[in-house]
Specification:
The structure holds four protein chains of four kinds. Chain A is 70% helix and 2% strand. Chain A is an all-alpha fold. In chain A, a hairpin with a 2-residue loop joins strand 1 and strand 2. The radius of gyration of chain D is 21 Å and the shape is globular. Classes of the chains: A mainly alpha, B mainly alpha, C mainly alpha, D alpha/beta.
């Protein structure tokens, strides 16, 4: 990707904006809709992903010398699955109400292309600190995306934020339903593309 | 032992249409948006997915209910299921290459994409969560696979049409596909309440 | 002589040099015109609310198209009557009582999200008015299901709320329906003239049929979509609509709900239904099946809207599967 | 036969034939100067056989055929070759042309008459037809002798004379059939003889009752049938005509001979007769000059090579507000940017449209998928999707949707409510992909 090594801060920034998992890279899309009907859920999943992403990157970076390239994929899988199980059990114990709603999606973090991709593309080739920064950046980027989407959906769909009532009146119930999730993500994605094109001369999302 | 065919049928229909994986459960979206550009790939993907889902659901059920539950190892299900899926996909890959190179040429490319897809792993996880019987697990897998295939094929046919549309530049590609999926999901809400399980 | 031709500035263009009279604008405005009887009946039954709601819809639809296009520096297409039509159809599909923001939200969703973001007229996948209505129904489930009895008086909304015939049929059964309307003939007559609760423009079957006849006469719609649609609904209502098989009353199902409005004015939308005739028949049958599925088994009393929207999803697929019969097609062609 | 024969689909444009249908064929004045393109036909261009300064006579070969699918060209006046250079043709291309200045004498080479023409052999007929430079006069201008020489594995059992004249406005074939029916029949008999065919048909749209009447009495006693056809465009397209009369469908990418039929235009039949009977080469033809943009509509016998401006002048000139001059009919003809183009063997009409007849297609809009074009396409294509593919540059997809079966009849463009330039899209796509 980049020829010259980036500073740690740049790595974090890159993950947050430049290669934002959802809006720029367009991978790991499922949770962007599934859990963003409320900011609480969105934040919970975002934090879970951030945790897994960072830990996986760190672990892979530490172990990269010992992993035989031929079996690296199953090993990565195991590492990811291990951390997902940890966060799964942690949340099941300490955040019971949220876990009831988004438990399936926590478990499904195991199949996130973004986590696997960063382990393969970055952590496997870099030292511990950059790998952690990269993971953190990616995780924060993901968390941010979750927060933005869930902000709009919860506000428009329920008139609430984090469960606190903000606007009175009839909210657009559809926004917290599946259809509204797709619409919100699509419109936000288009909006960010528009900003990118209008003010930064970008060409829009790579993605699909 | 009586088999409740009606319930199985309803399970298939409900998981295919009413609780469609894509439109109401948001699973498999990467693949859904990734391979729905051309009809041919969409059809190939649908077939491959259906087969893999059914087989991995069956294998997972056997392992989970007959080995893990008795041994009280339920907490390991994530690791075990992904292992099963990965192993199955890998062996299917090898077997297909040997047995039917033609089929492999047609569908093999999709196999590689499957392991990292949440929709495949979601089926056994859901089955385990709902404590389905073996047949119910299979029915759920079939329904989900059909639903996913249906979604893929509809999406592909519409996107072929969108390819030539004057979509505003910032919305081209993924954003409009999301909006499209939203509108399809809106239409699919018409099915809600059709079958209550 | 060359100078003469050049001085005259002869127009050079590709053949053909003769063109038919039909234009998009003419078609769209004709459809608008065909909806006039239904609109008049809605004003007759629901009073000024009908004008208010429909007018707001049309205004919001036309304005949002105009603003979107001018802000993107594109030529504005409000003159072709399609935005007007979307607004009108949406208005006729709303209950009379909705507050002012409902028509506006619906029209904006219909025009901006459903039509213009997809590339404008001709590229939209779904019928804009129906998406607008579905969006509203899901968003404001309470507001969108408050029905008023037709007062047949030109007065403000002080009428009593009631359920639509289909709603009564679904919740309380045919016996209750008969209790309200008297005997079957009375029921049929009420449904035919539109003396019942329902969306503004869907109630008067006669007015809708007059409009539809006009469109048939002008050749803007053909039987390929509406007839299979209605036939399927009738057949399914007869077979599955009663207590046992083959005891249902097809007439009630045919005359109530938004069926007539949907079958003649919305399922026939050029852009979102298949363009090949054979495909249109499949489309019509599909609409009918889903409508009855939802009416009889689903979670909503009325299924026409969702049926058309669902079949809209399939239109490109249907169009893809049916090719017109090609002249001189070689049969035993090997790929 | 109660109902007139026809094909599936098609359109009913306003025919506007009354402008010229009553005008008998008149003889145009011999032109002062002619421009003869060496390529007035499909196939290899003729090779120039004269030099600047040469004296030529009427009927003299000035360009010779250069292959099987090629045709010679003759001078239509007597005079001197003044230039050999590229000139614009009515199809808008630049083609090498021979310019001859008239000497006013109108001297002719001697034509070899042959009163006993029905005893000629098939090969002799073909040679005469070829040497006379006869090509299809309906517009496509395919060398006639090639049509008369089908390969052995494709036996021909019927010849159809195309008197449909489905293009609106045009009346040249109509007048020929009404005024010279016997020559049409003789021409047809010669063609049938050269192909060894027993069945002959003459298809005429029902809107020309006098032509049908005349032809009916002319074929009395012959094994030739006159078929009235439904008035519908494009009834006169070869494939549609064969479908209407013989009920056979020419396979896609095939030719009429694939179903055992040869179709010839009315004018071609007369040209064949004149060549075989009188030895006269194809140096003049009947052209309909019509439209509300011309002062005196007419059907005129015009020498090949006469400039359009010359012809228009003889018809009283253009009216004020004439906006478009078309070579051929309104459906498939070519709009002209200059009137200094010659009438060629394939020119069936000169149509001048006035402002109120003219329809602009400059602002077209997106396809609304009304399906009208699908309902009228005589080839059973999906013009809607083809035009969208062409518009957006998906030429390969257009090709897969049978782009190359389109023969640009313009029916789709005629009915299109969005006023899309369908034919232009088709041509664009065809130019971008190989068939």
């Amino acid at each position: 990707m980049s020829l010259k090594p980036k500073s740690n801060w740049e790595l974090i920034k890159n993950g947050m904006f430049g290669e934002n998992t959802i809006f720029r890279m367009a991978i790991s899309l499922c949770p962007s809709i599934a859990v963003t009907n409320g900011m609480k859920n969105g934040m919970a999943l975002g934090i879970a992903v951030m945790f897994v992403q960072t830990m996986v990157n760190a672990t892979v970076s530490l172990m990269r010398k010992f992993i035989h390239p031929k079996i690296r994929i199953p090993i990565f899988m195991l590492i990811i699955a291990g951390y997902v199980t940890i966060i799964d059990m942690l949340m099941a114990t300490y955040a019971r109400p949220i876990y009831k709603e988004i438990g399936l999606y926590i478990q499904i973090i195991v199949a996130f292309a973004s986590i696997f991709a960063r382990a393969e593309v970055f952590a496997n080739k870099n030292k511990l600190v950059p790998a952690i920064c990269d993971g953190l950046g990616m995780g924060i980027g993901f968390l941010l995306a979750m927060l933005v989407i869930s902000f709009f959906r919860e506000l428009l769909g329920k008139g609430e934020l984090f469960g606190y009532s903000i606007i009175a009146g009839n909210p657009l119930l559809i926004m917290v339903l599946p259809a509204g999730g797709f619409l919100a993500v699509g419109l936000l994605m288009g909006f960010f593309n528009w900003i990118d094109m209008r003010f930064f001369g970008g060409k829009g999302a790579s993605g699909v | 032992m009586g088999i409740d065919w009606v319930k199985l049928f309803e399970l298939v229909v409900s998981s295919a249409l009413i609780n469609n994986f894509v439109f109401t459960m948001f699973l498999g979206l990467c693949i859904f948006f990734g391979v729905s550009k051309k009809m041919e790939t969409a059809v190939g993907m649908s077939i491959t997915f259906l087969m893999v889902m059914v087989v991995s659901a069956a294998l997972s059920w056997i392992v989970y209910q007959l080995i893990m539950v008795p041994l009280d190892l339920g907490f390991l299900k994530i690791i075990v299921f992904i292992g099963i899926v990965a192993a199955f996909v890998q062996s299917a890959d090898i077997i297909m290459k040997k047995v039917s190179p033609v089929l492999y040429y047609k569908l093999g490319v999709y196999l590689a994409l499957i392991t990292t897809n949440c929709i495949i792993i979601a089926v056994p996880l859901h089955n385990a969560g709902e404590h389905y019987t073996f047949l119910e697990s299979i029915a759920f897998a079939i329904g989900s696979g059909l639903g996913f295939g249906l979604a893929l094929i509809i999406m592909a046919s519409i996107r072929e049409k969108l390819e030539v549309a004057d979509v505003p530049a910032p919305f081209r590609g993924l954003p409009i596909s999301f909006i499209l999926a939203g509108l399809i999901a809106l239409a699919f809400t018409g099915f809600s309440g059709l079958i209550t399980l | 002589m060359a100078t003469e031709a050049e001085a005259r500035k002869l127009v050079v263009s590709v053949s053909p040099h003769a063109r038919g009279d039909e234009t998009v604008g003419r078609i769209m405005w004709s459809v608008n015109l065909a909806l006039l009887p239904a609109f008049i009946m809605s004003v007759y039954y629901f009073g000024p609310r009908a004008i208010y709601v429909t007018g707001l819809c049309i205004l919001a639809a036309v304005l949002s198209e105009h603003i979107y296009q001018t802000s993107l520096k594109k030529p504005t297409t409000i003159g072709d009557g399609s935005a007007f039509l979307t607004g009108l159809l949406l208005g006729l599909n709303l209950p009379p009582s909705v507050p002012f923001y409902v028509p506006i939200v619906g029209s904006v969703v219909a025009i901006i999200i459903t039509k213009l973001l997809f590339g404008g007229l001709g590229y939209n996948v779904f019928n804009p008015a129906l998406i607008g209505r579905a969006f509203l129904l899901i968003s404001f489930p309470k507001l969108m299901t408050i029905w008023f009895a037709p007062t047949a008086k030109f007065v403000a909304m002080d009428a009593m709320t009631t359920a639509t015939p289909l709603g009564i049929l679904k919740e309380e059964g045919i016996v209750k329906l008969m209790e309200i309307f008297g005997d079957k003939t009375d029921l049929y007559m009420s449904l035919l003239v539109g003396n019942r609760a329902g969306s503004l423009g869907e109630t008067s079957v006669i007015a809708l049929l007059i409009g539809a006849a006009f469109l048939f006469y002008r050749g803007y719609i053909t039987w390929h979509v509406p007839v299979p649609f209605l036939a399927t609904v009738g057949l399914m209502a007869w077979v599955f609509g009663g207590e046992g098989y083959f005891t249902g009353d097809p007439v009630i199902h045919l005359l109530s709900g938004g069926l007539m409005l949907g079958a003649f004015f919305m399922a026939t939308d050029y852009v979102t239904c298949p363009s090949i005739r054979k495909g249109q028949i499949i489309f019509g049958i599909g609409c009918g099946v889903i409508t009855m599925l939802i009416r009889l088994k689903g979670g909503f009393p009325e299924g026409v809207m969702f049926a058309i929207l669902l079949m809209n999803c399939f239109s490109p697929l249907i169009d893809r599967s049916f090719k017109p019969k090609m002249f001189g097609a070689v049969k035993e062609q090997k790929a | 036969m109660s109902k007139a024969a026809t094909f599936d689909r098609g359109i009913h444009p306003k025919y506007n034939k009354e402008l010229a249908s009553g005008k008998s064929i008149s003889q145009a004045n011999p032109p002062q100067r002619i421009v003869v393109p060496v390529s007035q036909h499909i196939g290899a261009p003729a090779k120039v056989e004269v030099n600047i300064g040469d004296e030529v006579k009427k009927g003299q070969v000035i360009g010779s055929a250069t292959g099987f699918v090629s045709s010679p060209v003759h001078s239509s006046i007597s005079g001197k070759v003044v230039a050999i250079a590229d000139f614009t043709t009515s199809a808008g291309r630049m083609v090498q042309s021979i310019v001859i200045e008239s000497d006013g004498k109108d001297e002719s080479v001697e034509f070899k008459e042959n009163p006993d023409y029905m005893s000629l052999s098939a090969d002799e007929i073909k040679n005469i037809v070829k040497d006379a430079g006869i090509v299809g006069m309906g517009g496509a201008a395919f060398p006639t002798n090639v049509k008369l020489s089908p390969p052995k594995e494709k036996p021909i059992d019927a010849v159809i004379i195309n008197g449909a004249e489905c293009e609106p406005y045009l009346t040249a074939d109509h007048r020929l059939m009404a005024e010279r029916p016997n020559e049409v029949v003789e021409g047809l008999k010669i063609i049938m003889k050269s192909l060894g065919v027993k069945e002959g048909y003459i298809g005429i749209e029902e809107n020309k009752p006098d032509a049908i009447e005349a032809m009916r009495s002319a074929v009395a006693g012959e094994s030739i049938e006159v078929w009235p056809l439904e008035v519908k465009y494009p009834q006169g397209a070869e494939k549609m005509l064969i479908k209407a009369i013989k009920g056979r469908e020419v396979p896609t990418k095939g030719l009429p001979m694939d179903v055992g039929v040869v179709v010839q235009n009315v004018g071609t039949a007369i040209a064949v007769y004149e060549a075989v009977r009188f030895g006269k080469p194809l140096i003049e033809r009947v052209v309909t000059i019509t439209g509300n943009g011309i002062n005196e509509p007419a059907n005129m016998m015009i020498r090949v090579g006469t400039l359009m401006s010359d012809v228009i002048e003889q018809c009283g000139g253009l009216v004020e507000g004439a906006v478009k001059v078309i070579s051929g009919g309104p459906m498939m003809g070519f709009a002209q940017w200059t009137l200094d183009v010659p009438v060629v063997k394939g020119t069936s009409g000169i149509l001048v449209l006035s402002e109120d007849e003219y329809v602009s297609s400059d602002d077209y809009s997106a396809c609304i998928r009304c399906g009208s074009c699908i309902d009228v396409c005589p080839m059973g294509l999906n013009p809607s999707i083809l035009s969208i593919y062409a518009e957006k540059g998906f030429y390969e997809d257009a090709k897969e949707n049978n782009l190359f079966d389109c023969f640009e009849c313009g029916s789709c463009a005629f009915v299109c409510p969005a006023k899309r330039p369908m034919v232009q899209f088709m041509r664009l796509a065809k130019s971008q992909v190989k068939p």
